[in-house]
Amino acid sequence: MTRRNIVGVLKGFDLQATNIILYESHKRVYSTKEGVQQLVLDLYIIRGDNISIVGDLNKELDASLELSKLRAHRPIRNHVHGFRTCDISNIRTE
User: Fold this and answer.
1) Model's pTM, two decimal places?
2) Which of left, alpha, beta for 24 (phi over 0: left; psi -120 to 50: alpha)?
């Protein structure tokens, strides 16, 4: 199982679909068996429906990480929770 994220400099975005344009970007692929692989992407456009989070990266902290020694954790198993059902036919919305 692999996990990945994309790191780059935000160059542009649109407000309608939340598409973003990254410059000097690279993809980090995390694996449970081997260290982080970095693949150079350079200019990269990501569709808004594929974005889960956008954040600011601390460059000093990021540079201090030894990516070759990092491993991804196994994904958490899906848990099914019991839900109570209720009658919502008499609920009004205004």
Assistant:
1) 0.67
2) left
